[in-house]
Amino acid sequence: MPDPTVQHPVPQTARSGILSPADLRDAVSREDITTVLLAVPDMMGRLKGKRLRAARFLETMESQEMCAYVLATDVDMNPLTGFELTDWEDGYGDIRVLPNMDTIRRLPYPGTVLIHADAAHADGTFVDVAPRRMLRTQLARIAKLGMNVRVGLESEFVLYRGGQRRAQAAGYRGLTPVGLHNGDYSLDHPPELMQFFLDLEDALSTAGTPVEAVKTEGARGQIEVTFPYGEALRACDAYTAYKHIVKHLAEQHRMTPTFMAVPETGVGSGLHIHLSLWFDDRNAFACQSGQDLPETMKQAIAGLVTAMPHLGPLYAPTVNSYNRYLPHSFAPTRFSWGHDNRGCAVRVTGHGEGTHLEIRLPPANANPYLALSASLAAIHHGLTNHLKPPPPSEGEPYEDSDALPVPGTLAEALADFDASSLAQEAFGGAVVRHYAHAARAEVYAHRGQVGDVELERGFLRD
């Protein structure tokens, strides 16, 4: 669990993996850096962009261009009609890509840096549906209330033997996890997994994305990586770099990682958000054991359990996301909250100055920018309306009939989101329509498809 009392500054030195613009120019002049990956996070949180010659990038680093369809596709990068941002009617024109020069990050490849960028229209205004822009907007709304946000992300994924081509050839079925049994908290890892851990920790450190902890989880081959607490946008940028590195490194080890919410029956992976609000250097959630929770924290909890039911497509974006919400799975099935209770959607955890909230709703396939944006929009709703939370879940949260159930399908979540005045107020109509359209396309993509369970239950029995 990240320690929220420790804000981890990122030194602007080449050694840390984070470079200043001056560091980059110096490294390029020495030909130590030859390639820039300029990337915009797409709707799924994947890094999309171009490989640029570093020297050429420095000559024209005001902006680059990219086809607007990168923010208007399905998971297979098929351009979808019906988006307001871009469509076949306008020929999928370009958007501007504005580099953020405080995100220059060394990658564990020879001579390469990654730079996160923001998407903008031709007139320089930002693209409101871009995930990075959406998070900036929600952070600004919290800042207007006099607070800043600190975040620590906790990521789970499953690692299988064999590279991606082997997994694809097998139809992603019958794969062998790297691990023989439930290895939760185990320190006795097979040599191949231990070497992967060592290389991953080293690669992330090189990239200025050091981990706080790495452990094996409850399912075979399941891994949890916890990142230090820090500034919210930087945390999400680091997370997208981490996923990029995990996939590259696993292929080198002849392994395949998946960040699916549920890659196989009975295995669920999450993306837990540890979060607190701060007045300058004072934790607004700070609370000693046995004391009543601070009013700010109560209102934040109330906002989360009240508003998150309306924002599902932002933090649980695929049909598969909803397979994770099962009783006794350590994923929530109700919008409940509790003290140190991992069955709740919102968990109050930590002690004293380290007291914070853990939001357990997002699955592993969530876009971190969008999941955090939804969480902050919900918290803002609680703070500005001075909401009071319901009583905490006592005992079995899966039996808490007073709490609203988590939607069982993306179609259910979409219906709430599409008609939500709360979502419209927090994000604007254009953003809601954009992500509702994407969710609708995801639902339609699964219609008419026959799955293994349908065959098992119906082939010889109907």
Topology of helices and strands:
Elements: E1 18-19, H1 21-29, E2 35-41, E3 47-53, H2 54-59, E4 64-67, E5 94-99, E6 104-106, E7 112-120, H3 131-143, E8 148-161, H4 164-169, H5 191-206, E9 213-216, E10 222-226, E11 230-231, H6 232-252, E12 255-258, E13 271-279, E14 282-283, H7 295-307, H8 312-315, E15 337-339, E16 346-349, E17 356-359, H9 368-384, H10 410-418, H11 421-427, H12 429-446, H13 452-458
Helix pairs in contact: 3-9, 5-6, 7-9, 10-12, 11-12
Report on the structure:
About 0% of the residues have low confidence. Helix content is about 30%, strand content about 20%. It has a domain of about 120 residues: Roll (Ubiquitin-like (UB roll)), CATH 3.10.20. The chain starts with 17 loop residues before the first strand and ends with a helix. The radius of gyration is 22 Å and the shape is globular. Strand 6 and strand 7 form a beta hairpin. With about 450 residues, the protein is an alpha+beta fold. The protein contains 13 helices and 17 strands. Helix 10 packs antiparallel against helix 12. Strands 8, 9, 10, 11, 12, 13, 14, 15, 16 and 17 form a 10-stranded mixed sheet that branches. Strands 1, 2, 3, 4, 5, 6 and 7 form a 7-stranded mixed sheet that branches.
Number of strands: 17
SSE order in H/E notation?
Answer: EHEEHEEEEHEHHEEEHEEEHHEEEHHHHH
Per DSSP, the total helix count is 13
Calculate the terminal CA-CA distance, rounded to whole Å: 49 Å
What's the name of the CATH homologous superfamily of the domain at 14-128? Glutamine synthetase, N-terminal domain
Query: Which structural class matches the secondary elements?
Result: alpha+beta
Radius of gyration: 22 Å
Uncertain ranges: 7-15
Q: What is the CATH fold-level name of the domain at 14-128?
A: Ubiquitin-like (UB roll)
CATH class of the domain at 14-128: Alpha Beta
What coarse outline follows from CA principal-axis ratios?
A: globular
Helical percentage: 25-40%
Major sheet: 10 strands, mixed
Q: Would you tell me the overall average pLDDT? A: 92
What portion of residues belong to β-strands? 15-25%
CATH architecture of the domain at 14-128: Roll
